[in-house]
Every structure is written in structure tokens, then in C-alpha cells.
Amino acid sequence: MRKYLELLKSQIKVETAYLAWYWADVVSTLLRLVIMYFFWVAVFQNRTEISSISFESMITYVVIAMMLENYVSGAGNEMARNIKNGDIALELLKPYDYLTKLIFMDLGSKANSFVRTTIPIFLVAIIFIGIKAPLSFEVAILFFASMVVGILIGTQIDLIIGVLAFWTVNVWGVRVLREAIVKFFSGALIPLTLFPGWFQEVSSFLPFQSMIFVPVAIYTGQIKMGPDALIAFATQLFWLAILFVIVRVVWTQAVKKVTVFGG
Asked: C-alpha dihedral over 218, 143, 32, 201, to 10 degrees?
């Protein structure tokens, strides 16, 4: 475990070395915040609620979801690059589990972004945009735990996309398709409760809503604390376990492909 923690720390150091990327990320996120805020101001101009959701709850949901969306991908990009340029053969010779290394380095990158970008912008959103703080300390704790599990679910899905680089020339098209599916079925754009009933029914059988909708709905109170919140969190853990197994199975088959071409 210690070597993976060192890899995590090394990734944080790499991220902090590129200040230009940091400021670009901050500015772009602030611009998105402003655009989303005025969009929903226009939508709520002549009404106080939409499907029983107030303006304050809606803007809170959209801002938190927008922030979380930045954390549900990333690890698969590095894998796809390593496969495409042939570095994967060298990675497999090193004394660590490659998938675990990718996950920890990705967590290092996201931890750095969370501290340096998300927290300051979250405070700006509370002060100037007026989003709601968590309803209670218990809600904040469960939201944070749910957020971490949601990010790990996104990481597993991203790794599955990355592994496909063993069988495809380029995974760009698959990644674009993934982003489109995630935006709709995860609730990254708007709460899933605003979609038609059949869409909500379909999304309930998919892992995507566990990535963003569940943690944000816990934060905003759309999923009430108690049995409903615990069931939603347990469902997240279920999907994380299932996807973890799928990644390992697909990876085992992919490594055999490397062995065949390398031997």
C-alpha cells in the first residue's frame, strides 16, 4: 500500500507544478458557474418551483453536479495512452499492480484539484450564488462518502473504456459516447426527477446515477436521510463491487493479448 500512496503523492506534486493549468481550470469553472446561474435565473423568471424544486435547490443541485462531473473520469485516458504507444509492456514488468497504480494516481490528481479548485469555488458559490449548505452534519458526512464512491464508480467505468484500446485503434469515439451517456443518465445536467418516468425507470437499472445524482440528491435533500439514503448508498457500493470485478475480468483477458503479441 505504501508504494501506491507514494505514487499518489507524486501525482499531487506533478499537478501542483503546472500553475497555468490550475488557473485555466479555475477560470473555466467560474465561467461555467456564471453561465449556469443566469440560465436557471431565466428559467425560473416567472415561477417559484419546477416539479416541486425551488430555485435555490435547483441551482444548488446544478452547481454540485457540475463540480462532481469533473471527477468521474480520467484514469482510462492514461491507460489508453500507454496501450497505444506500447508503454503498457514496460508497465506490466514493474513491481506493482498497474490498475491499482492508475487508480491511486488518478485519486492524487483529483485530491489536488479538490483542495485547490473545488473547495474555493464551492465557497464562492455559497457566498455569491447562494447555493445551500448541507442540511446537517450527518448529511454532509453521507454526501462525502457517497461522493467518493461515485467517483470510484466513474473511475471503474473509465478503466473499462481504457482497456478497450487493446482491441480498437482509438477509443476517442467510445469516450465521446460515454460522456454523452453519463451526462444524461447520471443526472449531471439536471435532476433525474425532471425526466419522464420511463427514463427514470431505465436509469435506476444502470450504474450512472450512482456517480452523480445519488450524492447530489443526498446533499440537496431529494433523497431523505434515513432508509432511503442508506439504500441509495448501499446501491452505490453494489455497483462499485460489480464494476470492480468487471474491470479485473476484462483486464485479465487484455493482458493475455499483450502476452501473445509480446511473445
From this structure: -40
Q: Is 111 exposed, middle or buried (0-12, 13-18, 19+ CB in 10 A)?
A: middle
Instruction: Report the length, in residues, of the chain.
Output: 263
What is the Cα–Cα distance from 183 to 70, expressed in whole angstroms? 11
Instruction: Give the separation between CA 167 and CA 253, rounded to whole angstroms.
Output: 11
C-alpha cell at 213: 445524482
pTM of the model: 0.86
Q: Could you give phi then psi for residue 16, rounded to 5 degrees?
A: -75, -15
Contact 101, 3 (CB under 8 A): no
Distances in whole angstroms, Cα of residue 253 to Cα of each of 108, 163, 164, 250: 28, 10, 11, 5
Whether the Cβ atoms of residue 98 and residue 91 lie closer than 8 Å to each other: yes
**12: pLDDT strictly greater than 50:** yes
Cβ neighbours of residue 194 closer than 8 Å, sequence gap 6 or more: 50, 51, 53
pLDDT in tens, 187-203: 888 888 888 888 888 88
Of the two residues 58 and 9, the one the predictor is more confident about is 58
**Contact (CB, 8 A) for 143 and 215:** yes
The number of helices, as runs of H, and strands, as runs of E, in the chain is 12, 2
Nearest to 122 by CA among 19, 23, 26: 26
Q: Is 47 helix (H, G, I), strand (E, B) or coil?
A: coil
CA distances from 220 to 56, 71, 209 (A): 10, 19, 15
Partners of 49 in the β-ladder: 54
Q: Which three cell numbers stand for residue 106?
A: 488518478
